[in-house]
Description:
Blueprint: E1 4-8, E2 13-17, H1 31-49, H2 62-83, H3 86-111, H4 121-142, H5 148-170, H6 173-201
Antiparallel strand pairs: 1-2
Amino acid sequence: MPSTSVIEDLPFAVTSQELETPSGPLAGTPGIVGIPMAVAGAFGLGLVNTGFVPASAAAVALPTAVAASAVGLLLATVWACALGQNASAGVFALFFGFFASYSALSLGLINGWYGISAEQAVNAQSLWLICWLFAFSLLTLVTLRLPWTSTLMLVFVDAALLLLLIGTVENNASMTNLGGWFTFAFVAVAVYLYIDVMWSQTGGRGLPLGKPLVR
């Protein structure tokens, strides 16, 4: 019978049954790819929402979101699936969907691909934010059995999305700006998790990730 062990696969460690150690190109930790790609895209969005770039130039985050975050997270998802790391694959797929759909929405609104009028652009953005707030809130709840740093990271994502939703609906720049700062808080925790993964994979000791909030 396989024994129970902790698999340190991406952004977090998950308790699961021990898997056969893979060999060849599939061996490794998908988080080494997925985490920094998510960090790059989120950091860019944080800069946009905190006003580092003017609202008229908000599309400058798209190249990073499309070519780096979405592609990198898709690669990490496929890699995790190949290793049988289902929980990590699900997390990476969710973040991939976020960045890919953000890019699709932004490019579609800019180029008029979807026939959405300028008057309905706010409704389209609000609907997108509501969908992802629901999805990430659900993910936050089901990660309560993981180390609390993972849950904290997702709480920051939820808070950022909620504030951005309020800012979009009410046309409130202050709320949008605050949502950008919560995005930076997510980035800070993700960087901590990336250091843990990188140090562990290069022969060092991983960083403490905390105990699960729910056992």
